[in-house]
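Let's practice the habit of predicting before peeking. Look at the sequence and jot down your guess about where helices and strands might fall. Then scroll down.
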Amino acid sequence: MIPRHLTSKLLQAARLFPVVSLTGPRQSGKTTLVRDVFKDYHYASLEMPDLRRFALEDPRGFLAQFDGPVILDEVQRVPDLFSYIQGLVDEHPDRTGRFILTGSHNFLLLQSISQSLAGRCAVLHLLPFSWAEISRRNSMPLEGLGKSLPGPCPRPEKGLFDVLFTGFYPAIHARDLPPQEWLAAYYQTYVERDVRTIVNVGDVEAFGRFVRLCAGRCGQVLSLSSLANDCGISHTTARRWLSVLEASFIITLLRPYHKNFGKRLIKSPKLYFLDTGLLCFVLQIRTPEELWHRSERGAVFESFVVSELLKNFVHRGERPALSFWRDAAGREVDVVVERGDDVTAVEAKSAMTVVSDLLRPLQSWRNLTGMPDAPCALIYGGDDAFRRSGVVVYPWWVL
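Done guessing? Here is the structure:
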């Protein structure tokens, strides 16, 4: 088993809270992680029809069968169970680590937690593997991003486009599966089953078209009206379906950086897929070599950088503080990373050679902020780390 960076935070949460919930996309490794970390716990999967029926018909009896701490997998399948868990927790509020809850649908689980378990439950998220986890090393320290060169780090055996094409879902790496075949089955299950569980989507074909249109807009500022028109659906439906994709961890929306530098700023978010392998599948990219030649190459690489920075926060148990900056004149910084008072501007470029044009957005950022020495980072598709014009340049594989 590849060690997960969230493990220490998961153990800490179980020492402090009566209930710990772990959400994330299907097949991100939630069950494997909690069963490995909490080996002595009872385990029940509410995906099993008989157990789910028992929990639905007799929740008190279902919970009473466990004479110790328990892992309840896919607990959002029985929403009423949360109220009964609350009652048991309130009887003995000092007993920590009593329930470990996992679920694949973020807003269904969080809605139930906010209604019944507020203040009693730690909420953590597990995304697919990070590149650092696959490389079996610690993730890049964000406090040094844009300030210092990376420490020693072995170069990967696989090339960049092989990594992007394969993606980061654990099953592909654990069983060395052909990525496109596994992702095809994953996508089909998601569209035909999970989406209907989360929200009533009557036209599955239209939803699939919507997902493909989102993939084509990856890395772009989102126009919801344009997206809805191209898909042939209403603005309200497009907004609801976008929420479904975000809640099920297929996409993430990067909001604009709010500090006003005296210019009119773009207010709409940018859209990214959380897994580059799934993005390549939806874009119908069939091989790593095809990705190299496709016009979407830059957007796929940018998605990789955004998702790796996101995992860096999430797998530490921290709230991600990522945004982007763009003004009405079209000047843009791909990612703005905030850690307390530290703000770092990051550009993501798939090019393997660094030319001065790649650094221009970061120089504009420094001019507009009035901080000529503001930390700035360029993450690119090459293999060397160095400084250029005061910008720290990182190879893709140190993330």
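How did you do? The chain has a mean pLDDT of 91.
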